[in-house]
Amino acid sequence: MAIFPKSRFWSRVDTAGSDHALFDDRAGLRARGVAVAATPLAHTCRYEVVTDDTWATVRAEVSVEGADWLRTVRLERAAG
Q1: How many C-beta neighbours within 10 Å does residue 33 have?
Q2: How far apart are CA 79 and CA 66, in angstroms?
Q3: Mean pLDDT, rounded, for 3-22
Q4: Within the chain, where are the H helices?
Q5: Would the pLDDT of 42 be above 90?
Q6: CB burial of residue 42 (10 Å; 0-12, 13-18, 19+)
Q7: Is residue 62 classed as helix, strand or coil in its secondary structure?
Q8: How far apart are CA 13 and CA 79, in angstroms?
Q9: C-alpha span between 63 and 69 (Å, rounded)
Q10: DSSP annotation of 31
Q11: What DSSP character marks residue 2?
């Protein structure tokens, strides 16, 4: 597991919730984080984004989970 040099935390203003992201943006972007919100449906979102040094997306993964449900998506750029 990578150790990220930067961390940011946001509090939502539209509902109870927050977001915490860990990232390295020195050569492109590698970021991983968690967001939670209370409404309209309480949920937790986990995400990871990786770009190359030109900031073109290489991979993005998102998983959102609430009471009795889970949704995930993974997008990955093909080699070449």
Answers
A1: 19
A2: 34
A3: 94
A4: none
A5: yes
A6: middle
A7: strand
A8: 40
A9: 11
A10: E
A11: P
- Return the pLDDT at 37: 95
Distance CA 72, CA 26 (A): 28
Rounded to whole angstroms, the Cα distance separating 38 from 71 reads 17
- 């992201």: which residue's tokens? 21
Cβ atoms of 9 and 18 closer than 8 Å: yes
> What is the per-residue pLDDT across 53-73, written as a single tens digit (0 to 9) for each?
999 999 999 999 999 999 999
pTM of the prediction? 0.86
| CA proximity to 73, closest of 61, 58, 59 | 61
Residue 70 token pair? 């889970």
Task: Say which amino acid occupies 47.
Answer: Y
Q: How far is the C-alpha of 21 from the C-alpha of 39, rounded, in Å?
A: 21
Residue of 73, 68, 60 lying closest to 41 (CA atoms): 68
Q: Which two tokens stand for residue 30?
A: 């590698």
